[in-house]
Amino acid sequence: MLNKQKGNMYGFVTHTWNAIKGRCSHACEYCYMKPFWKSDIHLDEKELKTDLGEGNFIFIGSSTDMFARSIPEEWIRKVLFKCIEHPKNEYLFQTKNPLRFKKVKSWYPNKSIFGTTLETNRENNLNNAPIRSGRVEGMLEIPSEMKMVTIEPIMDFDLNLFVKMIKDINPKWVNIGADSKGHNLPEPSAEKIKELIKELEKFTKVNLKGNLKRIYPK
Ligand code: SF4
Description:
- The protein is of the alpha/beta class and about 220 residues long.
- It contains five helices and ten strands.
- An eight-stranded mixed beta sheet has the order 1-2-5-6-7-8-9-10, covered by helices on one side. Strands 3-4 form a two-stranded antiparallel ribbon.
- Helix 4 (about 160-170) links the parallel strand 8 and strand 9 (about 175).
- Iron/sulfur cluster (SF4) binds near residues 33, 96 and 129.
């Protein structure tokens, strides 16, 4: 079913829709969805009958990474074809494996935004997702006006290297958010976040999510 946007979601998203459901193979330690996964990853065929309406901005696959390597291409095709049936909506696709965006690029609806998550420039062992340089590579060919980067949950970073990474992607905008659930992540200081925002605003728009306030009170 089509779910109305709530909680710590992007302000521009009106709804979420999840036809691919279950345990995400990226297994991020800080994932807020973990307690909700009741099964292994699967395509819920019943969802394909959902009326996606029109005039909505729908985050497709908000509950699990539907572009992870473990997802069969046929499932992705079915989800994207469903979106194409509702061309008066806008759609957000976000993944930590954006190299996969390319492989199915002929199946996207016209009004699509593509996003990837970069929590930091530094590698760590907090998930099984592709390394960050791979995420950058996967975003390069997408036109700037169609892409965003999300820094969430933000973790400590190397300013120059991190800014360069995001500049290489050249996104239309960047979202920044923090860990909402107390996972004891290595977080940057407010001063460092301020520096990051200042540098990013030289070439893109920056959108601060509500959960950033805990570590960056404005
Ligand atoms: S990629 Fe997203 S959905 Fe998958 S485990 Fe990480 S945070 Fe959760």
